């Protein structure tokens, strides 16, 4: 999560607004699929400061589309984070509340921005659930090395 976040931050601070817009879109996908460790890093101080800086930027120093997308995403992510116990106290949620108190113009809320947006189970975590289902209990673990025909030992 730390290396991925560093890459996102580097691109968020890029001078080209197209790079920033694409980075925000990829970051949104990563947040929706990255799992709790990634969310905790993204919700931390440094990533949140960069996002807040883009949201608060004056029109002359920032692209309007970047600012609008950042505001939308901060609002969506904060809504989802605040609905999940381990993420309620992140810097991201505090930054959203601060921006809202300071009168930033947020777009209408996305009704799909809920804790379900950031709840993701990996296949390996879901596999015991799948195995317990009678119609698929004959499957072997798809992530186990032996089911792929290779061994982790050297020959």
Question: Summarize this, please?
Answer:
With 155 residues, the chain is mostly helical. 55% of the residues lie in helices and 0% in strands.
Give a structural overview:
There is one protein chain. The chain is mainly alpha-helical. It is built from seven helices and no strands. It is globular, with a radius of gyration of 19 Å. The two termini are 33 Å apart.
The total count of helices amounts to 7
Could you tell me the mean pLDDT? 79
Task: Name the helicity range.
Answer: 55-70%
In total, the number of strands is 0
- Please report which band the strand proportion falls in: under 5%, 5-15%, 15-25%, 25-35%, 35-45% or over 45%: under 5%
Largest β-sheet summary:
none
Overall SS class: mainly alpha
Shape: globular
Ends apart, CA distance between termini:
33 Å
Radius of gyration: 19 Å
- Poorly predicted regions: 121-155
H/E topology pattern: HHHHHHH
Which features characterize this protein?
single chain, 155 residues, mainly alpha, 7 helices, disordered C terminus
